[in-house]
Specification:
Elements lengths: L1 H16 L1 E3 L6 E3 L4 H18 L2 E2 L3 H23 L12 E5 L6 E4 L3 E5 L3 H4 L2 H16 L2 H22 L5 H41 L5 H14 L14 H20 L6
Parallel strand pairs: 4-6
Antiparallel strand pairs: 1-2, 3-4, 5-6
Helix pairs in contact: 1-6, 3-5, 3-7, 5-7, 5-8, 6-7, 7-9, 8-9
């Protein structure tokens, strides 16, 4: 019993002291991984990825990725400066690369290292579509989602250790059932909704970034509609997915387009 109490107490203390407020959302987030810890690893992995994949240079598409990326970066700086957070991007080393791949994807590592796969370009179609994608991915980085997921994974491991302690006096079969229940419960009840929450946050901040950057946020709805059509309906139930369903995402984006325009207007950008 005492071991279980100690484990629970350690879990609670770690959770309390790991929370910090993100200036973009004003919400308290779970994060005990600093930029000093995560940036060097992210930059090294990014460099290694570029060495192992075909980076497209000197084309109109490659230049478009750089152009949109620079505008999104400038929008992020304006937004953070307006909140008195001019130092928030210290340590960022922005980079934008187009990679030859049929995969319909893009990502931004902590610290502003961005990759866009050529396979997504037929769906983005134009700069506004590309800004939707890159704004969303940059938002993940600005919201420290990578560090939060690392923090959550560590807490999940600590929680599993606590379950083992609590089940230590039970039979082996009972212990196995408890551990399986914890694994499913922590994923469906914790980590998956945690990831969906990140996607929704990135949609919201990403929409604001693209609007401030000069791209009409109404175009984001059209992009996600094309993405949903491209998926062909091949999605798993939303409660078992790390991403909200296409219809859920589109409905939410439609509901916040006006807010993005209001934010952009504060910087003299009107639609």
């Amino acid at each position: 019993m005492r071991k279980g109490v100690l484990t629970s107490s350690a879990f609670l203390l770690l959770f309390i002291f790991a929370c910090s407020t993100n200036p973009l959302t004003g919400k308290s987030d779970l994060n005990f991984v600093s930029n000093d810890q995560i940036f060097p690893t992210a930059f090294a992995e990014y460099s290694q990825f570029l060495k192992e994949n075909k980076v497209i240079k000197g084309t109109a598409d490659a230049q478009r990725v750089v152009t949109v990326g620079q505008k999104i970066k400038a929008a992020a700086e304006k937004l953070l400066n307006s909140k008195g957070q001019s130092n928030y991007l210290n340590g960022y080393a922005w980079e934008y690369n187009l990679v030859d791949s049929k995969e319909v994807n893009a990502w931004c590592m902590p610290g502003g290292k961005i990759v866009v796969y050529s396979g997504i370009l037929p769906i983005t179609k134009d700069e506004a579509g590309l800004a939707t994608v890159m704004g969303h991915e940059v938002a993940h980085a600005l919201l420290n989602h990578g560090a939060q997921r690392m923090s959550a994974a560590q807490l999940q491991q600590l929680g599993a250790a606590g379950v083992q302690v609590a089940a230590s006096g039970q039979s082996s079969s009972t212990q196995e059932i408890l551990m399986q229940a914890y694994g499913l419960g922590s994923e469906v009840g914790g980590m998956l909704p945690f990831s969906r929450k990140h996607e929704t946050e990135a949609d919201e901040i990403g929409l604001t970034l693209m609007a401030i950057a000069g791209y009409n946020p109404d175009k984001a709805v059209e992009f996600w509609q094309r993405m949903e059509a491209n998926s062909g309906g091949a999605t798993q139930p939303e409660f078992l997915s790390t991403h909200p369903s296409g219809s859920t995402r589109i409905a939410h984006i439609k509901s916040i387009v006006a807010n993005a325009k209001v934010e952009a207007a504060k910087f003299g950008v009107k639609y």
